[in-house]
Each structure stands twice: as C-alpha cells, then as structure tokens.
Amino acid sequence: MAIIVHLEDILKARGMTSKELCALVGITEANLSILRSGKAKGVRFNTINKICYYLHCDVGDILKFDGNLEEDDEI
Are the CB atoms for 51 and 6 separated by under 8 Å? Predict the structure, then answer.
C-alpha cells in the first residue's frame, strides 16, 4: 500500500471514538472504517478537511506515503 492511513492513531491521541468523528464529519461508520483500514480507493477533499478540522491535525498526520508505487497505479 503506497498510502498509509494513521487515522486510528490520531483518534486515540485525541480521545475520540470513530462514532463521534462520524457524527461530526457526516459520514457513515462503514465509510470511516474503510478509510481507517487503508482500503479506501479515494476520499473527498471535503471529507479530509472536516476530519482534520475536528481532530485538530494536518493531512500529513493522517496520510503518509511509503515511497512505493502500487501495482494498479503503474503508467
């Protein structure tokens, strides 16, 4: 996986549950679970904006690039 999602770590550090974040951001628990697990193929900037706002963090705190190219991303 080229993009590593650290959302779970940020939630724990902020003392917030996934359910609480879902209510604030306006997304389903199922969609947040897909994002947290790193299995999401995409995410809206608006959603990332809200997550960062409510968790008081930066995009780079949540999403990290591992330096690899995913096989389905090859040109």
Answer: no
| CA angle, residues 38, 43, 46, in degrees to nearest 5 | 135
pTM of the model: 0.86
Contacts by 22-30 with C-beta closer than 8 Å and gap 24+?
Answer: 24/50, 24/54, 25/50, 25/51, 25/54, 26/50
Residues with Cβ within 8 Å of 35's Cβ and at least 6 positions away in sequence, in order, are 5, 7, 43
The per-residue pLDDT for range 15-48, each reduced to its tens digit, is 999 999 999 999 999 999 999 998 999 999 999 9
Helix ranges (H only) for 15-56 are: 18-25, 29-37, 45-55
